[in-house]
Amino acid sequence: MVGSAASAERLQLEPLSVTSPTLQDGGPLPSDYSCNGSMGNPPLRWSRVPDNTESVAIVVDNNNSTTGAEVHWVVFDIDPRTGEVAENTVPVDAVEGRTTNGKVGYTPPCRRQENYRFTVYALKEKVDLGKGAPLSETLKSIADKTIAWGRLTTTDIE
């Protein structure tokens, strides 16, 4: 888990189901979604969102043992009735925060031999930060509000 979001992982939470029509858990990240491609973010789907969810957030990251975690995408305040994000899009009225490199939006991964984690969080309330909010603030708010989460992990880039 990234930063203070690790506290959410220690809780015993009901897992969300996270899938994708183009990604397989444990499979490689297609190069189209890496810095060698041009497809932007991959499509993601999620289900089993608790009834008391007020918003949903997505964090895409990797956890490199030598350089530390790197966040490639943060999207929050997604309507809890939304169950997917399409390829190269942001859900209506959702907000994107800054990534590790300071940019807003999906920053395609480049390290070929890394695991990339696509984590969806169900939150008890909105993050309520503006577009481009600092990464540390965004991750702390997500961690503090998490009531359930699920993850799809890719291994390496094709």
From TrEMBL:
UniProt region (Disordered), positions on chain: 1-29
Fetch the Gene3D superfamilies from UniProt.
PEBP-like
- From the record, give the transmembrane residue ranges: none
Family affiliation: Belongs to the UPF0098 family.
Q: What is this protein called?
A: YbhB/YbcL family Raf kinase inhibitor-like protein
